[in-house]
Amino acid sequence: MSGTHTDVPAPPTVPSVLAHDLPRPVPADEFAACPVGETFRRVGDRWSMLLVILLGQRPHRYNELHRAIEGISQRMLTRTLRNLETDGLVRREVHPTVPPGVEYSLTPLGGTLLEPLSALADWAVRHEVEIEEARAHALRDRRAQR
Amino acid sequence: MSGTHTDVPAPPTVPSVLAHDLPRPVPADEFAACPVGETFRRVGDRWSMLLVILLGQRPHRYNELHRAIEGISQRMLTRTLRNLETDGLVRREVHPTVPPGVEYSLTPLGGTLLEPLSALADWAVRHEVEIEEARAHALRDRRAQR
DNA sequence: CTGAATCCTCTATGATACTG
DNA sequence: CAGTATCATAGAGGATTCAG
User: Which residues form the HTH hxlR-type domain (chains A, B) (predicted)?
Assistant: First the structure.
């Protein structure tokens, strides 16, 4: 965050991404100052982390991933993989067989993500119950107060 | 998925999450019920992680946070703080002064998140350049191909 | 100062159908 | 098998206004 300036006069950013489905129409990186926020927004969607974790175990074929995740649509699987590929985290290899076989795997860079990601995942598992309890508690209180 | 005998003989369908080499055994749940995915969806939005990191440095007042983040709307700041509070990660203390002062801080549970989060943030900072380069490269290739 | 309420836009994601 | 193309929708998130 490079902030500290309280008077950013709304630069004419926002190039109005009217293009519906383009791959990353360059999101006017005025906000890209903080790499942490940037990265979280890039890998912080619903599927990226799971894909990285899956591919961290071993390379996978497209439909293998599709079956393994069970709940992701083809559209999002493809899109997420392409994003990860663009960011240099995932490699896509096409084998010119018939029918074509495509194998996805982590790049070395992607491999380095695996460790901090595991730390987070580990945290999630370890504190799952506490969070559940906190939520239950909060919701109970909220009801009681009305 | 009936009789199509491909070369992949009935894969275990439920790949264990994070089976590579964690310090602790991680229960291989189904992905749908995976606490990892759940937690990521809860804390994986645009602001939660940044707030936790900020509050990890020291307690903050509401407007302090608003100024510090530069880009978040009041609406989302309040909403995100409430979510974190509900999940037991953030504590909200109202001081009955005039005008009222509200202080936000991490709970002990929230404090435990700080470490894995820092690992991720660290990764983001360390590999920022590589990612940028990968993206630039990919975009260049994409243009050249047309 | 710390929000709540309202309205609105854009984005992420899904469903479905089609293709090399 | 490995995608694309198209349509549709819920919800994230912002802007603005009101209030204790």
Answer: 34-132
Phi, psi of A11 (to 5 degrees): -60, 155
Domains of chain B: 28-145 (1.10.10.10)
B12 to chain A: which residues are within 8 Å by CB?
none
Does residue B6 have a pLDDT over 90? Answer: no
Phi-psi region of B60 (alpha: psi -120 to 50; beta: other; left: phi over 0): beta
Q: Please write the tens of the pLDDT for every residue from A92-141.
A: 999 988 889 999 999 999 999 999 998 988 898 899 899 999 999 998 88
Contact call for B39 and A133, based on CB within 8 A = no
Protein CA A46 to sugar C1' D8 (Å): 20
Using the predicted structure, report yes or no on whether residue B70 has a pLDDT greater than 90.
no
Q: Specify the range with the lowest mean pLDDT, choosing from A26-30, A52-56, B95-99, B111-115.
A: A26-30
Cβ–Cβ contacts within 10 Å for residue A94, how many?
9
Please give the angle made by the CA atoms of B118, B123 and B128, to the nearest 5 degrees.
130
Contacts of A86 in chain B (CB under 8 A): 134-135, 138-139
Q: What is the helix, strand, coil percentage profile of chain A, to 5? A: 55, 10, 40
Q: Say how far apart CA A38 and CA A7 lie, in whole Å.
A: 22
Q: CB of B35 within 8 Å of any CB in chain A?
A: yes
Task: Look up the pTM and report it.
Answer: 0.77
Interface test with B, best of A118, A137, A142, A145 (most B CBs within 10 A): A118
- Is residue B141 very low, low, confident or very high in pLDDT (cuts 50, 70, 90)? confident
